[in-house]
Structures are given as structure tokens and as C-alpha cells.
Design brief:
nine-stranded antiparallel β-sheet; transmembrane helix; single chain; ConA-like_dom_sf; transmembrane; signal; alpha+beta; Lectin_leg; seven-stranded antiparallel β-sheet
Amino acid sequence: MRLPALSSLLCLAGLASVPVAAYEGDPDIKSIPLRTHSLSPPYLDSDFQSRWFDFGGDTVIRADKYIRLTADRPSQQGWVFSRVPLTATNWQIELEFGIHGEGNLHGDGFAMWLTKQRATQGPVFGSTDRFEGLGIFIDTYKNNRPGVSFPYVMAMMGDGQTTYDQAHDGKANELAGCSARGLRGAPVPTKLRLTYFQDKSLTLDLQYKTEDSWTNCFTLNADEANIAIPSVAYLGLSAETGELSDNHDVISLKAENLYSVNRNGGSRGSDSSGSRNRGSSGSKAPKESGSWTWFLFKVVLFFGAIVGGYFGYTIYRTKVRSSRF
């Protein structure tokens, strides 16, 4: 075994020991960062590539500031898509972005995707039409939708066959949505937070009025609407300009796996509802402590065996070389 291989195993150990945080909606739900579906400056690796994402179209990356999907120029399309699917059953995605430009007239908009298709440029905010999965659209240009203030944020669940109703700003496809007047060029960081519990709920919150203050756009329950996101879905972002234009910037993307901690010391998936034994705090600490101690002991023992094997093999090779002389 060579030293680089040992280093790779130690890196995997670091991935296995990612920090666990409490989910703010429920103290019993914990979150684990998903590095495979997160982006932050400088966005690229040392060889100017991204290990986990592909970029295309007119996308430009400024490593210290943003990923610009479109510049403030007409007829641009840009996209970013994950290379591996998001297979977690329950998750939360938080996106910080910026939509801004110099003109008084602007368009067209920005989208987040969780779809079976990936990295395919097209006419729906820079990505493909007739998609299968979930699209979240931030539409900044009003075509034909009376009585609705823009920018307008909406969700569409695609079945792989239905075309996006572009002429009426998605009215025929809308699963849920809300007006977000002031989101474009907001004086505070603009953010989108999408939370999904499989077969239970889908929630979209926005930050654009006040920093650290979230506005609920919609919350859907499984018994009210079809929120069945494909079990294998790629996470993507895209944007488009037409005759009118805007800068569409991705600042950061953070994805987290959500799971529920059993009050008796175990975990039972990301169940946001159901009974919880809140009176068993006395038995919780010893079980959790014992579980973590045993886990850490096994990790140390495993890597100790690897290190021991490496040095043993090194000594063996030295003896073999010495015997030749």
C-alpha cells in the first residue's frame, strides 16, 4: 500500500465525520451537509474543475464572488448541474443568489431543478422543456398574467410530457407560488430555501425583505398535491435572458440531509411528525455516549490496522531489497 492510498482513506474518514447540526424547524431533526450538492467560493478545484458539478452555456465563474449564469446581455443561457443525483429522501437546499442589472426593463428569469434530466440547455429559463421532476422558477418578466405582481416564484412538477406554459408565465403548470416584489436587486442577500420530506411536505421560503428573516412562499402537503420528486434527481440551476436581460448570479448553494433522532438514542429517518418520547431524557445520554464511543473505537481500530499494515509492508520491502545484496 502506498502513502497516497492511505491519504485517500483518511480523506474518506473525514467525509464520514461531517458535523451534525440541529434543524431549526424541529430540535429532534438533525442535518448533515451534502458536499456533493453544495457550492461555495472558489467553486473550482486546484485544476480549475469542479468535482461535483458541470457548468455550461454562457456561465462564467468568478472564483472570489459568484457563478454568473447569464450576464446583463440579451439572448444568454447558462446552467449548473450536479454530476451525481440527490438520493436523500429528506433534505433542505439553501441557495444564495443575485438578480440585478442596469436597465429599467429586465428578464427573463432563474430556475432551480430537481429532475431526471441534467445538463441540457433549453427554452425554460435556460434548461430543457418537458422535464421530469421539480422546477422552481423565479420569473422576472411578465408576459401575460393579469393580477399577478412580478417577480413571481412558482413550482412546477413535470411529468416528462407536459410543456411549460411560457405564454402565460406558467399559469397552466403552477403547483404553488407567490409574488416576491422587491426580490430583484434587493438591498439584502437574496436566498431561497427548499425543504422536502418524502411523501409528507414541500416548503419554499424566501429571504429578500430583511436579512435573517424568512418569508414563506408556500407549504404543500402530500395529501393536497403531487410532490413526489423522483428518487433519482439531479440538482441544477439555470437562467435565461431574451431581448431583455439581467445578471443572474449564484453566490452559494448548501444542501443538507435531514433525519430524525429517536429520543431513545436511535435514528428513524427524517420523519417530521409522529410521537416522540420527550420524557426519556434520562436514558438518552448513556445510550448515545456508548454508541459514539464504540463507533470512534472502531474507526481508530480500523485506521490503526491500515497504518500498521502500511509500515509492516514498508519493513517487508526493505528486507527484500536488503536480501538481494
